[in-house]
Amino acid sequence: MENKILGIHHITAIAGDAKRNFDFYSKVLGLRFIKKTVNFDDPGTYHFYFGDEVGSAGTILTFFPWGAGLQQGRKGSGMATEIGYSVPQGSLEFWIERFEKYNVIYNKPSVKFGERYLTFLDPDGLKLELIESKTPDNRKAWETDEVKADVATKGFHNITLTLKNIKPTAAILTEIFGYQLMEQEVNRYRYATSEVEGAAIVDLVELPDEKHGHVANGSVHHVAFRVPNDEVLMHFREKIENYGLSITPQIDRQYFHSLYFREPGGVLFEIATDNPGFTVDETLENLGKGLKLPPRYESIREDIEANLVKIN
Ligand code: ZN
How far apart are CA 178 and CA 9, in angstroms? Predict the structure, then answer.
């Protein structure tokens, strides 16, 4: 069997204030807060994970909240510029009312590829979209008291990458990941995998004259693609190396195993496994309740906790 990528695994972005980030995504957007941990490469700062009930691949949005005073990112080429969530048909009116109530910056709904969508900004200026998918999305939404299943996000619909030239990135998607070009509207090219129903789309927007973007506060740090297990992960490592790109060794991220490489268009890509998942150190019911640390930081837990702001 030929191994293909199973859509998006997670998307990681940079935020400023941790509490403000936690409140926006868990309360206003109504995602489940599934993991509170630290940046494994910088344990003085948090790493937050939001998703559906279990933290299914394709629903996981993660943040490095690096605190106030962070330099603001600049949108441009060579970066992921929009994160698209799938929402039920007819739910945008609910969201507009909610964004009014919470002073969220948003645009009037518009249509692309025949799908109605609502663009909005998170408190750090990160651009997101709620999209009424034209194909039924059967994923089970996480519900909160204020955001019920009939309007709640169901996980990612797509990610948009802005590029000076889409060709080298498109080649990675089609030749290595198993994606196909589905549709095109002006300079937006929609690629998708048929291996999964949700989180299957990558849109490439070509802007030849666009300045290179700067990844900092309010921007996407990397996009992670999904594989089922370590065996397939290492198969992709070999494939990408043979393609002539440099790629990291396998890295243990506690909740998944990862590889990182920069695709030729400049966007940092990760490939991540389903195993072991978010219940490896907390029960399903208690996901996101405690501060979880990888074993190597347990001995300095007190110092780490003393340094982090309380969020919940
Ligand atoms: Zn990641």
Answer: 15
> Phi and psi for 18 in degrees, rounded to 5?
-65, -45
Q: Mean pLDDT throughout 271-283? A: 97
Give the distance (Å) from ligand 1 centre to CA of residue 226. 11
Q: Which domain holds residue 96?
A: 8-307
The β-bridge partners of 222 are: 12
d(CA 37, CA 40) in angstroms, rounded, equals 8
Decide: 46 and 94 in contact? Cβ < 8 Å. no
Amino acid at 279: T
Instruction: Note whether residue 312 is domain-resident.
Output: no
For the chain, the domain total comes to: 1
**Does residue 2 lie within any of the structural domains?**
no
pLDDT per residue as tens digits for the range 135-191: 999 999 999 999 999 999 999 999 999 999 999 999 999 999 999 999 999 999 999
Alpha carbons 94 and 27: distance in angstroms, whole number? 15
CA of 64 to the centre of ligand 1 (A): 10
Domain membership flag for residue 77: yes
In a domain, 1, yes or no: no
State the distance from the centre of ligand 1 to the C-alpha of 79, rounded, in angstroms.
15
The b-or-e profile of 75-111 (16+ CB within 10 A means b, else e) is bbbbbbbbbbbbbbeebbebbbebbeeeebebeeeee
pLDDT tier, 234 (very low <50, low <70, confident <90, very high otherwise)? very high
Query: How much distance in Å is there from the Cα of 61 to the middle of ligand 1?
Result: 9
E-only strand ranges, 207-242: 220-227
Q: How far is the CA of 222 from the centre of ligand 1 (A)?
A: 6
> Measured in angstroms, how far is the CA atom of residue 50 from the centroid of ligand 1?
13
